[in-house]
Amino acid sequence: MSLSPVDGTALVAIESGGPAGGSRDRRSVGRSPGQLAWLRLRGDRTAFVSGATLVLLVLVAFAAPLIELTYGIGPRDQFQGKLDGFGLPLGHAGGVSGEHFFGLEPGLGRDVFIRLVYGLRTSLFVAVSAAVLTAVIGVVLGTLAGYLGGWVDAVVTWVTDLTLALPFLVVALALIPTLTLRFHGQRDAVPPAFGVGVLIVIFALFGWTGTARLVRGQVIALREREFVAAARASGAGPGHMLFRQLLPNLWAPILVSFSLAVPQFITGEAALSFIGVGLTQETPSFGRMIYQSLAYLQTDPAFVLFPGVTIFALVFAVNLFGDALRDALDPKSAR
Amino acid sequence: MTVGTADEPGPLLRVRGLTKHFPTRGGRRRGGPVRAVDGLDFEVRAGETLGLVGESGCGKSTTGRLLVRLLEPTDGSIEFAGHDLTRAGRRQLRPLRAQLQIIFQDPYASLNPRHTVGRIIAMPLRVSRADPPGGTKARVRELMELVGLNPEHYNRYPHEFSGGQRQRVGIARALATRPRLVVADEPVSALDVSIQAQVVNLLRRLQRDLGLALILIAHDLAVVRHLCQRVAVMYLGRIVEIGDRDDIYERPQHPYTRALLSAVPNVGHLGPAGRLRLTGEVPTPLDPPSGCRFRTRCPKARDRCAVEEPALVRRGGGQATACHFPESGPLRPERGRATA
Fold first, then answer.
1. So where are chain B's domains?
2. What is the full DSSP assignment across B186-234?
3. What percent of chain A has pLDDT over 70?
4. How far apart are CA A104 and CA A94, in angstroms?
5. Which of B102, B105, B114 to mutate to test the interface with A (most CBs of A within 10 A)?
6. DSSP A110
7. Which residue among B155, B157, B173 places its CB closest to the CB of A33?
8. d(Cα B116, Cα B106) in Å, to the nearest integer?
9. Mean of all residue pLDDT scores within chain A
10. Under a CB-based contact definition with an 8 Å cutoff, are residues B175 and B145 in contact?
11. Using CA atoms, how far apart are residues A262 and A248, in angstroms rounded to an integer?
12. C-alpha torsion B231→B234→B237→B240, nearest 10
């Protein structure tokens, strides 16, 4: 998997095997399960709408510097002149105008729209990186446990249970400030990249259990199938077994758990930033913005609304797309 | 190919004391292991077909899986083309595995759903690093034609085929490396009756044309009679009777064989004609009966059967029977041939 955003990864992985290659000769070339899933996905309206929303949001996140250029305002530019004596933006709905699409932040007077654009970038980067790491750890451990069995399986299962028993929020609350203090002094400015990195590592440490369990179960089920026995009877080595026989049958559950992990990490990042242990002050992020906006819930409700709606739209779209993906890959699980 | 020649002395496969015990979980309470296969002795000559019959749970499939070393035997030896399979490492085993292939029962589970049939059939070639003349693809097309599949369907996926066609794919895969012995584990019992006949005839044709030795594991006695020159009857992990087809089918000596054969419904002759009914259940392989394993259900059991385990010996007739009081004579003199 690459570090590309979630829907990009999903589509590319399904497409590989390619409808393009299949259309050469319709009579003699069959449709692979991946192609069939792609066809089902294409026919699904929910998938289309949520996918389009996702593509749009991902494009926005990627093109953030470009948008900044055309918009003419950076995420740290302050417009104190457009705030009144209480620090609240002048004008309607939190200062929405042709110049500031989503208005201004109360207090610092930064532009909400461009901060959301960059916040989207942060959120997607953190969530997708964490989901990729999670998937890699989960797939490696799950496959090893399921395929090798014996004491490897026992150890992996034990570590999984141990990880599941740890309360995520408490550990995150304890670990993040401690790590920050360990590497940066009390008074030093913490670089934004450090906060992002710590967050991704924390998510990956806690998030792999689901994928590992899923993959382990699948591998154990597949291991008993006769096509695996056929490969073993021919003397196939572990490499052939894992990469040729097992992994092609694992792509579907891996993809689905990946796409369902992304929204979980987006809200996770927002939640941690909200309780103040997530990202640093100057990194634009959804959680930070919602946290800041709460103080203005009554005086400037528009400031709560814009980040809230954006994060809702993002998470909703990813979740819907993940569901549609699951239905397309495994039509039997459909309700 | 690399191992052995066609005219080596002795049988192609020689099995001695083959045993497989499965340990039971939390075995402290119940104790012993499941004795799935408990001391089998038999031989298969090159080009010969041996049928392995018996009711469910008697260890037929376990035997098949032991022969291709999908399972590690607890004891005993399997000698194939002069090499001891049970003591060969993975590296020595690989050239032998190419000559010893297996066909599975379930045509839906035995093909990888994510691979094209071309890739599935080519798998043993790839794994054994064989380089057939003309290339792998040509060999696969040749194989597809051999088993009656359209080679044009090379790039299709298993889900696009019917059960019978899938089983043909499984057969083609087993034949890819030109094996000398094929173990067919219930190859037709998952198929429709109308398709069964086609696949059985295909197996018979291939066995004759390619000079294959075939071990057919089946519970369908008609299929075994149609395909096999020799038959071994298993009961609770042991062979109770083994011999030429006609001896076994026409003049069975072991009471179990007689009961098994008499249980075959005769479509042309309905009614309770001379059926030998067995009472009771098959004893658990966790704790098989002492002496003769069949004695708990045998109509002729005496005291001696509980004490002394009968050896598989030949006494008159063409077959060897493990029974102290073997029967003789035809099973049902008035009955016609059992046909499929």
1. 11-22+34-228, 249-332
2. SSSTTS-HHHHHHHHHHHHHHHHHHT-EEEEE-S-HHHHHHH-SEEEEE
3. 81
4. 6
5. B114
6. B
7. B157
8. 18
9. 78
10. no
11. 22
12. -100
The CA angle B121-B127-B131, to the nearest 5 degrees, is 80
The two beta strands, B49-53 and B75-80, are: unpaired
Residue type, A220: I
User: N- to C-terminal Cα distance for chain B?
Assistant: 37
pLDDT tens sequence across A240-261: 888 888 888 888 888 888 888 8
Question: Cβ of A248 and B90 within 8 Å?
Answer: no
pLDDT of the residue at B332? 59
Q: How far is B183 from chain A (nearest CA, A)?
A: 11
Q: With contact defined as beta carbons under 8 Å apart, do B100 and B179 qualify?
A: yes
Average of pLDDT values for B3-12? Answer: 59
Q: Residues B189, B151: contact at Cβ < 8 Å?
A: no
3-state SS string for B277-294: CCCCCCCCCCCCCCCCCC
Contact B309, B294 (CB under 8 A): no
Alpha helix locations (H) across chain B?
A: 27-30, 60-67, 90-98, 117-127, 136-146, 163-175, 193-210, 221-227, 245-250, 255-262, 303-307
CB pairs < 8 Å spanning A and B: 86
Q: Which residue of B has its CA nearest to A251?
A: B114
Residues 6+ apart with CB under 8 A from A162: none
**What are B146-166's pLDDT values in tens digits?**
999 999 888 888 888 888 899
For A25, the token pair is 């000769």
Contact A34, A14 (CB under 8 A): yes
Instruction: Give the type of residue at B315.
Output: R
pLDDT attached to residue A280? 67
CA B164 to chain CA mean position, Å:
19
C-alpha distance from B2 to closest chain A C-alpha (Å): 15
DSSP A260-281: HHHHHHHHHHHHHHHTTSSS-T
Coarse DSSP helix, strand, coil percentages of chain A, rounded to the nearest 5 percent: 70, 0, 25
Classify domain B11-22+34-228 at the CATH topology level: Rossmann fold (3.40.50)
The tokens describing A231, both together, are 């490969």
**Which residue of B65, B155, B169, B175 to mutate against A (max A Cβ within 10 Å)?**
B155
